[in-house]
Amino acid sequence: MDEKINIFIAFMLPQKALSEMAKVADNVKELFQPDGKDEKFFHCTLLFIGRFGREYVPSIQEKLKSIAATQQQIPLTIDDIGFFYSKKKDRIKVLYAKPHIMPTELTELCSKLYEIIGKPLDGKTTPPIHEARIHFTITKRLKRRLSREDFEKIKGNVKHFNIPITIDNFGLYYCKDVEHRYYREISKFEFKKDIIPQDKIQF
Questions:
Q1: Of 31, 82, 95, 153, which sits most exposed with the smallest number of CB within 10 A?
Q2: Which of 109, 115, 126 is nearest to 166 (CA)?
Q3: Of 180, 169, 171, whose CA–CA distance to 72 is shortest?
Q4: Is the CA virtual torsion 83, 88, 91, 93 positive or negative?
Q5: What is the pLDDT along the chain (203 residues), one digit of tens a residue?
Q6: DSSP result, 88-155
Q7: Which among 2, 9, 24 is positioned nearest to 113, based on CA atoms?
Q8: Whole-angstrom distance between the N-terminal and C-terminal Cα of the chain?
Q9: SS3 label, residue 43
Q10: Considering the entire predicted model, what is its pTM?
Q11: Residue 7 in 3-state DSSP?
């Protein structure tokens, strides 16, 4: 039987922004349990395609390449902290960073990826991501219970950060483990570079 893998399209933070995000993660690392693995794969999932055989990858790559060929850069400012709450366990599970103001171009890109790549795959993929779900996971797997009040204190300590970035490439990735922690890059595609003057791109 052909091996199946979880395939997704994601935008990775550029190196400079990645370093800044790592500082934010370090501010709260004592609350979390990495189990010997440094979880700093700072990425924003644009479309989770799902569990498919490797034979689907070439056609997905071709479609992704065609989208990247016409896609302009998208300016994005990461400046807010949020969390995912487990009702089952009644606790905060994940801290993430996100834009306070979501660029329309980014949600439009998610919709385009779904229409061109997701929809043709027999409706097995996740529909366009709601803007609240467009985020960069800071860290997860808590060592102890974290209340909403605890979260507000943490947010107070790390909220004063701003990472202006531009989306200059996105890629196709896969993960094999059930917890979606061990990622591998399949391929990366560049956006067009002519939407923002270089002197306006700052960190």
A1: 153
A2: 109
A3: 169
A4: negative
A5: 467 778 889 988 888 888 888 888 877 776 665 554 555 678 888 888 888 878 888 999 999 999 999 999 999 999 888 877 777 766 677 778 888 888 888 888 988 998 899 888 865 666 555 555 677 777 766 555 666 777 777 777 666 788 898 888 889 988 766 555 567 888 898 888 764 444 443 43
A6: TTTEEEEEEEE-SS--HHHHHHHHHHIIIIITTTTT-SPPSPPGGG--EEEEE-BSS---HHHHHHHH
A7: 9
A8: 47
A9: strand
A10: 0.79
A11: strand
Closest CA to 142 of 90, 91, 87, 96: 91
CA proximity to 77, closest of 134, 143, 128, 3 = 134
What residues pair up with 47 in beta bridges, in sequence order?
A: 9
Q: What was the pLDDT predicted at 49?
A: 84
**Residue 32 carries which side chain, given as an amino acid letter?**
F
The Cα 191–Cα 74 span in angstroms is: 9
Query: What structural domains does the chain harbor?
Result: 4-200 (3.90.1140.10)
Residues forming a β-bridge with 74: 167
Helix, coil or strand: residue 195: coil
What burial letters (b/e) apply to 104-132, b meaning 16+ CB within 10 Å? ebbbebbebbbeebbeeeeeebeebbebe
- Both tokens of 144, joined, read 């102890």
How far is 172 from 78, CA to CA, in rounded Å? Answer: 22
H helix or E strand, kind and range, residue 185: strand 183-190
Amino acid 36: pLDDT? 43
| Tokens found for residue 151 | 């979260």
